[in-house]
Write a structure and sequence with these properties.
6-stranded mixed β-sheet, 12 helices, 434 Repressor (Amino-terminal Domain), Rossmann fold, 6-stranded parallel β-sheet, alpha/beta
Amino acid sequence: MKPVTLKEIAEQLNISVTTVSKALKDYPDVSKKTRGLVRELAKTLNYKPNTFAVNLRTKESKTIGLVIPVIVHHFFSSVIKGIISQAEKKGYLVIILQSNESYELEKKQIDLLLSQRVDGIIISLANGTADFSHLNEVISQKKPLVMFDKIAKIVKCSKVIIDDRKAAYLATQHLVDIGCKRIAHFRGALLPQNSIDRFLGYKKALLDNNLPYDPSLVYICECGDMSFEEGKKNAKQLLEDHDDVDGIFINTDLVAIGAMTEFNKLGVKIPEDISIVGFSNWFMSSVISPTLTTIDQPGFKMGKTAFKQLYKEIKAIKNNKPKTPKIITLETALVKRESTKK
């Protein structure tokens, strides 16, 4: 069935197309009676505005692109919910793409979003992204770009982040405060900035407390996906390499839960033998046994904040106003649970 047009409504009411358009937009120069008749007929005929034509006139697509490394991760799903909660209020559709931690796929997805003429892009970088030319292309096309979580410091755009170094320091300091002397770190891949900063926070906390930094106690999640299986694998390797480790700071809760599962299987008691601190405060961290001490990373708030900043920049460009890249840092907190000694 063909969509109903403004012209058909106008012909049935014997008025002009302009009057119909104004009536649907509630213009005051159209009488209340006419506005009522137009709306009633439009409802009866199931009239839907031609959004494509509207977008051509306003030069807005009312869509934004969101590129994330993985969708299944609790943190990223929380970010998505935060972005959508704000986008819907402003009438925006969110196109969600998953890079699978691949630079090549991420690059293709950015090109796709630009070809779809989205009004702006929000992105958390893939672990493999070291070249930022595709992101600079977004900026050169005067499209607002907002990064969150995994960012590139040298790309001149707005960013919504946490202080990963400070948060990791807090996590490691907690292990020191409860008496841990040999503290390991399961870190993310070498490249992402947040992985680097969390490692540096861990290392600084050791040195500030006169504990030696031992690189053999740092285990890299080589696959880059920070998975449950990587946690199990690294936990098993740690026990083979070191029998004196009494604390671990782990880069994400999913890896931490994998490690805890392996320790439980091998008879290692938590926190009596090893205390563990995770990162992100995933739902599972509060229901696993023992419950997981972790850093609370505000994913939902990060998503809301990222969209709000993007929307400000979309409006600034539309109104020919200058936009200055902004760094927004959200607070984190340590959530103490049963996986660390009291």
